Amino acid sequence: MMNQNKYQQKTITTDGQLLLKKAEQDQIETVWDRYEEQLPQCGYCEMGLSCRVCMMGPCRIDPFGQGPQKGVCGADADIIVARNIDRMIAAGAAAHSDHGRDLVEVLFKIGKGKAQGYEIKDSEKLRRFAAEYAIYPEDGDNDLSIASKLARALMDEFSTCQSEIFLTKRAPDKRLNLWREAGLIPRGIDREIVETMHRTHMGVDNGWQSILLHGLRTSLSDGWGGSMIATEVSDILFGTPQPQTNAVNVGVLKPDQVNIVVHGHNPVVSEMILHACSLPETKQLLDEKGAKGINVAGVCCTGNELLMRHGVPVAGNHLMSELIIATGAVDAMIVDYQCIMPSLGAVAACYHTKMISTSDKARFPGMVHIEFHPENALNQAKEVVKNAIDNFSNRGDIYLPVEPVTSVGGFSVEAIIKALGGTPDPLIDAIKGGKIRGAVGVVGCNNPKIKHDHGHVTLTKRLIENDILVLDTGCAAIANAKAGFKVAESIQYAGPGLKEVCGALGIPPVLHMGSCVDNARILVLASALANALQVDISDLPLAGAAPEWYSEKAVSIGCYFVASGVYTVLGPMPPITGSMNIVKLLTDGLNDVVGATFAVEPDPEKAADLIQKHIESKRQALGI
Ligand code: BF8
Ligand code: SF4
Fold first, then answer.
1. 77-238 shares its CATH topology with 250-394
2. How many CA atoms lie within 13 A of 262 on its CB side?
3. Segments of the chain scoring below 50 in pLDDT
């Protein structure tokens, strides 16, 4: 620590360190500067002890017992902490699920012939998914009519007219029955989110346990509902991912080409931009401007979506978004929604970068708004691409100080099963035989409270060294790709057993499974393993980790992992320490309810120890 410079203290990445220095020279304020300005952050809020639910307040509880122990309405620490955390779950589940709904809308409009430029790319998956909803092709049916019928069935998953979200049936029977008996089965995606907002209004649910259990139910409506729908429909519309090579870090930006960076989450926008870039009219525009080509690169999860399906390069993860603009090489950044810092427009104003927002539900200062809808997406994408090409000649100096790192992504469940030779058996045999001790989903964000990428990369390194397979998504997946863990040769970092198995299969020891909604793929894989072994998910040597989480979506993910039976270790502490009852329930008591708990450990070395111990205890219980 002592001899690290101030940039090395903020990020482990070389491109991040060099660009932080440049940003400082260019007098750009970054997320780290603003974080420091916020210190010390509010202790009441950090502990979850402040309440702004109504205007008899705002109220706060004194954690030292000297000052008030109840809000104006009489709510104590347990009630206030529980309500606050539930509202975080609801916001996270809403974000993932509304993203899923936007995809369903495209599917529906394709069926009606009203979605410009979109098509069904994976007809086989469309039919397989439709069959799960008992929609079978009849005489005269084609992909479009099946798409319409499936979209209607998926819309019902959001509603209040059924008793269980249909996709929960993908869980092993034991888990499904456990949810039913514990009252955790989600009935409708929107219904559970709305009910969370209702329960947490003043004077409704004041049982901290029942508030939290409903929070788990809401999170399940995300994992086994909204997120799962987002993943499946994205595969149907844009293709089911298969492994392919890509490149990562800011070195993927090209000095002699028009660089378009897509940032956000929904492939509905980024896929159409990519498509527009391949049109002959785009080539003509490029020639006129003297650009050698057009280069689409991603940031955050929409980057992961394109990486998974097309091998499109990713320039960086969440904390890199401002620094990527500071390269001066981004001709246009196109955003949709979620995790897009409202600071980006101000950063771009210092360079030539054109910022374009696209969603009717997400506006940002300093951005031009070109709104995408299924009916006009292709025209809008062409317009956006033209804007980017026109801006190429306005570029000033650029700074691209690193070479890109090669990585392999695209590990959908279908791709993993294919790599295993058509069945999960080789993976199960390797786990049973002990060559692979278990598997861990390393997921989630970056957060300036944790040195950028340090949590993800250190934890992942320790896990694979100890023969634990890592499945990653979101910004964690980008961190691990930049660290070089995702090429066949990276088996050199793995323990002997994992090295042997991955070497024989020709896969890396860290499998890039996609964006944050693609955590649903991890649930599907866990169910397949549990079913093959005829056990529950909570019996498997599995764990989850979110070493650098920041987002409400990550709270929802953590909750549905735990509610699905997966022990989950968080890096940053959630705002729960104001209630020791709730800390005890989440870190211990939930074992009796869902067979899994949370742990919190900001040090990734110690988190790796916790996970290893958990995996070995599960192996022992299974007698393997
Ligand atoms: O959905 S990992 S910082 S980009 S919230 Fe956001 Fe977190 Fe990144 Fe993706 Ni997920
Ligand atoms: Fe205060 Fe209760 Fe209102 Fe919260 S709900 S702000 S604790 S009065």
1. no
2. 33
3. none
Please state which CATH class domain 412-622 belongs to. alpha beta
CATH topology of domain 77-238: Substrate Binding Domain Of Dnak; Chain:A; Domain 2 (1.20.1270)
Give the model's pLDDT for residue 607. 98
Amino acid at 270: S
Question: For the domain with range 250-394, which CATH number is right: 3.20.20.70, 3.30.830.10, 3.40.50.300, 3.40.50.2030?
Answer: 3.40.50.2030
Protein residue with its CA nearest to atom 1 in ligand 1: 516
pTM exceeds 0.70 for this model = yes
Number of the ligand 1 atom closest to the C-alpha atom of 445: 7
Q: Which of 262, 266, 339 to mutate to test the pocket of ligand 1 (most atoms within 8 A of CB)?
A: 339
> Hey, whose CA ends up nearest to atom 3 of ligand 2?
54
Look at residue 219 in the predicted model and tell me its pLDDT. Answer: 99
Instruction: Specify the pLDDT at position 2.
Output: 55
Q: What is the DSSP string of 135-201?
A: ----TT--HHHHHHHHHHHHHHHTSSSSSS-GGGGGS-HHHHHHHHHHT-----HHHHHHHHHHHTS
Angle between helices 496-505 and 425-433 (to 10 degrees): 160
The residue extents of the domains of the chain are 38-73, 77-238, 250-394, 412-622
Ligand nearest to the CA of 96: 1
DSSP letter (8 states) at residue 547: T
Q: How far apart are CA 443 and CA 456, in angstroms?
A: 8
Residue list, ligand 1 pocket, CB within 6 Å = 265, 300-301, 317-318, 339, 444-445, 474-475, 515-516, 551, 553-554
Task: Give the residue, out of 52, 53, 208, with the most ligand 2 atoms within 8 A of its beta carbon, to mutate for a pocket test.
Answer: 53
Rounded distance between C-alpha atoms, residue 257 and residue 242, angstroms: 27
Please identify which residue in the block is written with the tokens 């290893």: 612
Closest by Cα among 334, 386, 390, 374 to 357? 334
Cα separations (Å) of 493 from 28, 87, 134, 469, 510? 37, 40, 46, 12, 10
